[in-house]
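User: Just a sanity check before I run the rest of the batch. Below are the structure tokens for the first item. I only need the designed sequence back.
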């Protein structure tokens, strides 16, 4: 059991291989770029009529 043993984790690290003792890390999903994301259309809200100012 050491650097030359293919069945041990250390042996797999030295040999650069993977297996049950040394599984590969799961890759995380990549973030989408600005070009790939669809932008939702802005909703246009009708502006309320301006209230007349009270005269003094």
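Assistant: Here's the designed sequence for the first item:
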């Amino acid at each position: 059991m050491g650097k030359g043993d293919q069945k041990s984790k250390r042996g797999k690290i030295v040999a650069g291989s993977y297996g049950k003792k040394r599984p590969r890390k799961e890759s995380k999903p990549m973030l989408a770029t600005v070009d790939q994301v669809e932008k939702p259309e802005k909703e246009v809200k009708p502006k309320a009529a301006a209230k007349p100012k009270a005269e003094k």
